Amino acid sequence: MYKIIESVGSGKTQKLIKYAKMVGAAVVCSNPRAMQEKAHAYGISGVRFYSYEDLAYEPDLLDDTPYVIDDLDKYVKYIIPNADKFIGFTMNKE
Fold first, then answer.
1. DSSP secondary structure string, 11-68?
2. 70 and which of 1, 29, 79, 90 could share a cystine (Cβ 3.0–4.6 Å)?
3. For the CA atoms of the chain, what is the radius of gyration?
């Protein structure tokens, strides 16, 4: 699994879009239109963008397409009921 863990403003989103383009993946994000505009500004085309809602409620839209998620913790809070009570998690280092 490809992971980008860096600080705010470090270029994580650009790296993620470039990776998605390289491997033929879609990008799942909070605002697909804004993300398309970023991709265009970066000079990247041919990447499909879907919303968190699409993945949570209409996963068949992605068919068998691999995908990456921009801002995973925001997506998790989106899909978990009572997200204000979600205060921590574990993650494997690999």
1. SHHHHHHHHHHHHT-EEEES-HHHHHHHHHHHT--S--EEEHHHHHH-GGGGTT--EE
2. 29
3. 14
- DSSP H/E element including 79: helix 72-79
CA distance 42 to 94: 29
CA 91 and chain centroid, separation: 17
> Residue holding tokens 């650009």?
14
Angstrom distance (rounded) from CA 25 to CA 69:
10
Going from N- to C-terminal start, the domains of the chain cover 12-82
Prediction pTM value: 0.87
Per residue in 4-50, pLDDT (tens digit) is 888 888 889 999 999 999 999 999 999 999 999 999 999 999 999 99
